[in-house]
Specification:
261 residues; mainly beta; Thrombin, subunit H; six-stranded antiparallel β-barrel; 10% helix; 37% strand; globular
């Protein structure tokens, strides 16, 4: 694996009022960026409709956002580091998911009821591929969405190598360069990592794309195979947490929620 300087992708926004973030003003596009990353995706069409913005309100003047994916009616998948303030897991009330944000307006929104992160994830210390391997977080929402979720299917390193090729993977997310509309890379370049816990990508690597999904067609169905964890924005090179890490805990949670109905 190449050694490059890796930085977190989560975006920190200052001076934003403490509101529900459902207007275009809440997700203003920053000035001075030379270009956008990827193309504009249609937020009304699946799978982009299931991808949205995870907002975190820390105080009246400090808010940040990442990208999340609806993987069940009440479950959103994102990066674990997006759910921490320093070394503390956030209060669920401060986390909100806005699905299918289109010019700043979401198709649906809900605050978090519960936050779950990998047991071995740590928010402290230098960033390493090992930390990316544990960089997954689950948001259980207060409200169920009627939007079609994205299925999760893990891929082994061998399957990933066999699957790699033009147009085999795509990535969707909301970044600092275009926070009010979803961006998409349809020919995302993905490479196997040193083990099945992570893989390498060359796609959306700007701030805000943490937690953004990598999708591939498996057994005839488009499925989520990993999420963005860390990246070098200048080189557009990043490390993703593979679905091999969270598919099991996610399935157990879905089953538990189904039993409670």
């Amino acid at each position: 694996m190449r050694l490059v300087v890796i930085t977190l992708l989560a975006l920190v926004v200052r001076g934003v009022p403490n509101a529900d973030a459902q207007t275009e003003n809440a997700l203003q596009s920053p000035r001075g960026l030379p270009s956008h990353y990827g193309e504009i995706a249609d937020a009304t069409r699946w799978p982009s409709s299931a991808v949205g913005v995870v907002t975190v309100t820390l105080n009246l003047s400090h808010r940040r956002f990442c990208t999340g994916t609806l993987v069940a009616p009440k479950i959103v998948l994102t990066a674990a580091h997006c759910l921490f303030a320093d070394d503390q897991l956030l209060n669920p009330d401060s986390v909100q998911f806005l699905a299918g944000v289109n010019r700043g307006v979401p198709a649906a929104s809900s605050r978090a009821e519960r936050l779950i992160v990998a047991k071995d994830f740590t928010s402290a210390g230098p960033w390493t591929p090992q930390r990316s391997a544990a960089d997954w977080g689950i948001i259980v929402l207060n409200d169920a969405f009627s939007i079609r979720p994205v299925p999760v299917k893990p891929m082994t390193s061998e399957q990933l190598k066999q699957h790699a090729g033009p147009d085999s993977f795509l990535q969707i997310g909301y970044g600092m360069d275009r926070p009010y509309l979803p961006s998409i890379v349809r020919n995302c370049q993905v490479e196997a990592g040193s083990d099945e816990k992570v893989f390498i990508y060359h796609c959306l690597t700007n701030s805000g794309y943490s937690g953004s999904p990598f999708l591939a067609e498996i057994d005839g169905a488009l499925s989520l195979v990993g999420i963005a964890s860390s990246a070098n924005k200048k080189e557009r090179f990043g490390i993703a947490c593979s679905a091999t890490q969270f598919a099991g805990p996610l399935a157990e949670l879905m089953q538990a929620l189904e039993v409670k109905k």
